[in-house]
Task: inverse folding
């Protein structure tokens, strides 16, 4: 708490009290204990991943570039003898070559680790969704995705790599270098290119392996945020205004385990707290059932195809049907594109896309015509 207060003057005791109130910390007999969920999170955070992160790979590539730059500078040094210059130049190029060799093996190990982790995570998704979200996010956001930035042709590291290659070309053609140094520089150019291509190829494979899982995590995160937000709103409404939401609507309160609250949801709830008029939170009742009686029934495509004759352009058929004049374009499209038991619909894939519209609609639909035929009469 003292450390927190020295940083920005924040009241450390208040933060401690909130952690204790939320159940993250348990204070008993002057001892502070962590809950199981938090302990597991800390263990996960301290766990050393078997995948070397992209930041470390980038750092090693920069080390290679530094070794090559030093080799060039030593070769053109005026303060050393020729023997010393050759020795230092070859020593720096050897270090660059060793690092590139390490990167080649690291890339292979990373690919194997990602494939193995992906297989385990696919089995974990339904059994432990929270751990699934955390581990997939860590692998993608820390170990895989950042490499896309420095792989880009316009990135700073790519430009530095091209500069290092030019230095090696200069060493290869320099009159100050002996045969051994020139040969070493020529081989190092090829090694640098091969290693870069190998890293890029394996990175593409790792992305292909993990991207479907990360896309799934993004969808799961959205669902979790909705659940938390809905639960928090209902809870705050129940406490702030006596609506009896749970009793009247029979809403089941669900809170997934091991998830922390979202501060943006808290800000939204504070705005709700300022509502004073209860009428703003009530749903107006209908005056009569007349509005319900006037609601149009969904279009039954099977009932329209009474004759049983095939229809070449079923959407045009529905849009121009005399009995469906009051139906909107959206309702017509929904009727055609929805599942229709008893009706077989096939897209005319060899036809050009057509534009479908209806008077009074601000929308248009572009799509290939579809044939429709009754396959069983209901």
Result:
């Amino acid at each position: 708490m003292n450390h927190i207060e020295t940083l920005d003057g924040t009241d450390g005791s208040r933060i401690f009290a909130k952690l204790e109130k939320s159940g993250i910390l348990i204070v008993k007999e002057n001892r502070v204990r962590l809950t199981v969920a938090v302990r597991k999170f800390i263990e996960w955070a301290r766990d050393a991943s078997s995948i070397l992160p992209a930041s470390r790979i980038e750092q090693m590539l920069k080390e290679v570039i530094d070794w090559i730059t030093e080799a060039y500078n030593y070769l053109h040094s005026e303060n050393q003898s020729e023997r010393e210059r050759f020795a230092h130049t070859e020593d720096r190029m050897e270090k660059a070559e060793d690092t590139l060799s390490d990167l080649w093996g690291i890339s292979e190990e990373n690919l194997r680790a990602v494939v193995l982790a992906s297989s385990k995570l696919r089995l974990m998704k339904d059994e432990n969704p929270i751990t699934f979200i955390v581990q997939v996010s860590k692998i993608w956001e820390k170990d895989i995705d950042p490499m896309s930035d420095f792989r880009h042709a316009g990135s700073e590291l790519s430009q530095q790599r091209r500069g290092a290659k030019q230095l090696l070309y200069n060493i290869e053609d320099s009159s100050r270098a002996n045969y051994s140094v020139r040969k070493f520089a020529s081989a190092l150019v090829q090694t640098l290119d091969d290693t870069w291509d190998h890293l890029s190829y394996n990175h593409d494979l790792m992305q292909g392996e993990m991207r479907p899982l990360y896309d799934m995590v993004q969808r799961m995160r959205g669902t979790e945020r909705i659940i938390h937000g809905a639960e928090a709103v209902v809870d705050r409404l129940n406490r702030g205004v006596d609506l009896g939401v749970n009793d009247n609507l029979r809403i089941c309160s669900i809170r997934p385990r091991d998830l922390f609250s979202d501060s943006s949801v808290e800000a939204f709830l504070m705005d709700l707290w300022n509502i004073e008029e209860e009428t703003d939170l009530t749903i107006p009742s209908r005056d009569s059932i007349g509005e319900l009686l006037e609601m149009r029934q969904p279009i039954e495509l099977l009932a329209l195809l009474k004759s049983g004759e095939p229809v070449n352009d079923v959407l045009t058929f529905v849009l121009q049907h005399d009995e469906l004049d009051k139906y909107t374009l959206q309702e017509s499209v929904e009727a055609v594109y929805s599942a229709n038991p008893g009706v077989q619909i096939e897209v005319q894939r060899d036809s050009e896309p057509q534009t479908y519209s209806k008077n009074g609609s601000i929308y248009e639909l572009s799509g290939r015509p579809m044939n429709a035929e009754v396959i069983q009469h209901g």
